[in-house]
Specification:
The protein has helices spanning 2-18, 20-27, 75-91, 161-172, 186-198, 203-212, 256-347, 357-442, and strands spanning 42-46, 49-53, 56-57, 64-66, 72-73, 97-99, 121-124, 128-129, 135-136, 149-152, 155-159, 179-183, 226-230. By secondary structure, the protein is an alpha+beta fold. It has 2 domains: 2-18 and 30-254, 2-Layer Sandwich (Muramoyl-pentapeptide Carboxypeptidase, domain 2), CATH 3.30.1380; 274-339 and 380-443. The strands form 5 sheets. It has a 4-stranded antiparallel sheet with strand order 9-8-11-10. It has a 3-stranded antiparallel sheet with strand order 7-13-12, covered by helices on one side. α1 packs across α7, α5 runs antiparallel to α6 and α7 (256-347) packs antiparallel against α8 (357-442).
Length: 443
């Protein structure tokens, strides 16, 4: 069935070749700086002795993280990894495909690897579970022993049979990029094949997984990551070389006409994919810039609110200090005058009955008036202290309101970031839709 599908694709590609001259004529209308968008990737030579031209970069996104700077490959390899990440996100939501090194931007020797030279190799991390059986973030260099256990720091990790099997199935079932090898240590391979048999996977799928994981030179060192290698794309031949062993579904070297037709179709696919990637990068940069500007604005607003709060608190404190000092001075003067009056009255000589009775009554009335005045001043002082406490409480509530405003500004910033991420995912989904449309065209 797969062979029939590939024959149908080649037939469609032959039809596309009829319109190639028109496509090339339309390309003349594209500005010179944009002509590179129509250039498809080209894998030249073998994986251990070759180079890469017009490479595609693997970009981190939802469900996929590129861990290394050497993340360049052919369009077919990058598309395979992106589709595998999407398949894992559907199969096990929340899964993140961690991808290590692919090739350098222009290929060639990439230490310490013996291959990874022509854009058709990629290192991918295994999925793991923690001691409680919960998924953990991937690490490309997490070595699993014969029991399927690994140590990372002080934590014991377990080989996730279900998700790793689903990843292998997604890789070998991809129709747009033929997987030649998946290098994996023998003890992990036996574990996965046993899981596939126990889970009731179709026999054809288990056969393909078994064939692409057959041990070859260098397989045993892949106990901390798997190594994916794809066949040369039809349009890259004969400059691209596939080394044996080759699988039964390998069709060999196609005719020059089929190669030329495939190249014409690949140019259209490459143009669509590169433009989609460019639009996604532009959208991401615009969203990041908007989020940064929003953060700067919110931070400036929060700083202004904090400065105004500090000024208000300082003014209230200064006013309370002035009022308290004046009232304390007034009360001290009142108490001093009361004390002087008592000393004067107590030092006055007793008078004979009926003598200077009017003066004594006047002194008593004056003393009572001073006492009432002192009581009023004490009441004013008490009210001033109450007002000061109220102002302090109001200042505290204002500080709380400003802190709430600052928290709201932070929440707005986080909401802006989430919106930016949502728009980025939407841009990526649009790009994925464009890729699906391109795939439907190939059918």
């Amino acid at each position: 069935m797969r062979r029939a599908f590939r024959v149908a694709v080649l037939a469609w590609v032959g039809c596309v070749a009829i319109f190639r001259d028109g496509a090339m004529a339309r390309a003349q209308d594209i500005p010179p700086g944009e002509l590179l968008l129509d250039a498809d990737s080209q894998s030249i030579g073998a994986t251990e002795d070759g180079r890469l031209e017009h490479a595609f970069a693997l970009e981190s996104r939802d469900g996929l993280v590129a861990l290394r700077t050497n993340r360049f490959g052919t369009r077919e390899l990058v598309g395979l990894l992106e589709r595998a990440a999407d398949a894992m996100a559907r199969e096990a939501p929340g899964s993140v495909l961690a991808v290590g090194e692919l090739s350098a931007e222009h290929g060639g020797h990439l230490p310490p690897h013996g291959s990874h030279q022509s854009g058709r190799d990629a290192d991918v991390g295994y999925f793991a579970l923690d001691a409680a059986g919960e998924p953990v973030p991937q690490a490309v260099l997490t070595t699993f022993d014969a029991r399927g256990e690994a140590r990372r720091g002080g934590e014991t990790l377990h080989f996730d049979d279900a998700r790793n099997w689903a990843l292998f199935v997604a890789l070998v079932d991809d129709l747009a990029a033929e997987v030649q090898h998946i290098l994996i240590a023998s003890h992990l391979r036996a574990r996965l094949l046993a899981y596939g048999a126990q889970s009731g996977a179709p026999e054809e799928v288990r056969r393909r997984v078994g064939l692409v994981t057959e041990p070859i030179r260098g397989s045993e060192v892949h106990d901390d990551h798997l190594h994916v290698r794809i066949y040369c794309a039809v349009g890259d031949r004969p400059a691209c070389l596939d080394r044996p062993p080759l699988h039964p579904w390998y069709e060999g070297t196609p005719s020059p006409e089929a190669v030329e037709a495939a190249r014409a179709a690949d140019a259209l696919r490459a143009a669509a994919q590169r433009r989609a990637q460019a639009e996604a990068r532009l959208a991401e940069r615009a969203l990041q810039l908007e989020a940064q500007q929003q953060t700067v604005r919110e931070r400036a607003r929060a700083d202004a609110l904090a400065r105004e709060l500090r000024r208000q608190v300082d003014r209230e404190r200064a006013r309370a200090a002035r009022l308290s000092a004046d009232e304390r001075r007034t009360l001290a003067a009142l108490r001093a005058s009361e004390e002087a009056l008592r000393r004067e009255v107590s030092g006055r000589a007793p008078t004979a009955p009926g003598v200077d009775r009017g003066a004594e009554l006047e002194a008593a009335r004056w003393e009572e008036a001073e006492r009432r005045r002192a009581a009023r001043l004490r009441e004013q002082l008490r009210r001033a202290e109450v007002d000061e406490r109220r102002r302090a409480e109001a200042a505290r509530r204002a500080a709380q309101r400003d802190a709430a405003l600052a928290r709201r500004a932070e929440s707005l910033r986080l909401a802006s970031e989430r919106r930016a991420q949502h728009l980025l995912r939407r841009a990526e989904s649009l790009a994925a839709a464009q890729r699906r449309d391109a795939a439907r065209m190939t059918r």
